[in-house]
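Aim 2 progress update. The chain analyzed this quarter is reproduced below.
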Amino acid sequence: MKIKFLVSFIGAAISFAVYTAGAATAGSQVGRVYVLSNKPENSVLVFDRASDGSLTFIQEAATQGAGTGATGDPLQSQGSVALRADNKILLAVNPASGELTAFRVTDAGLEFGSKVSSGGFFPVSVTVYSNLVYVVNQLGVPNINGYTVSDAGQLLEIASSTRDLAGGPLALPAEVSFTPDGTQLIVTEKGTRLLDIFNLLASVSVQVTALLFPRQKAGSQCLRLLHPIA
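Predicted structure tokens:
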């Protein structure tokens, strides 16, 4: 099935990741597009993208978690799927089951890697930098939670990495994202119109001690954690 424009999916979370390959001849494949379906049995829809912009559906990969099945803008967020910079790992949130899924990216499509708890309620956005992953949970007491991910798609939760957002229950976070250099995490709060900025401070050792703290909460207790950096 080839289509010229990907406009919307009934019940889908309209967040997507795009992989772009090198130069190609007209009409040939130049990349991939990944879209979260947000079905009750959640999945990621995979499309080949041609140089003329057309999309060809190739796979529906089950996350083994649950979406909401709602229509419109069900997650009110950006970044429900995230592709690692080396195009080897794709992350996807499972909002209804409170889980995070990692896939291995192959030439044929996606292969399931692992699934873990998101560390909160209703995860809506995920971000990845090297082997470090963070997810933001929107409901309950909104928070972020951290993981490492291997090239095999195995997610491991970072001990004591959970951090509540500055806006508390009214935060309604919409997106979590690493800065391009991987030194900070930024979370947008729609409910409070705040930006939570977390500094990630790392030494040059293999086992890194990192301090994360939101700047607007001066004097708050810092979260200290250990994680490996590839």
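The longest strand covers residues 121-129. The chain has no helices and 19 strands. These observations will guide the mutagenesis experiments scheduled for the next reporting period.
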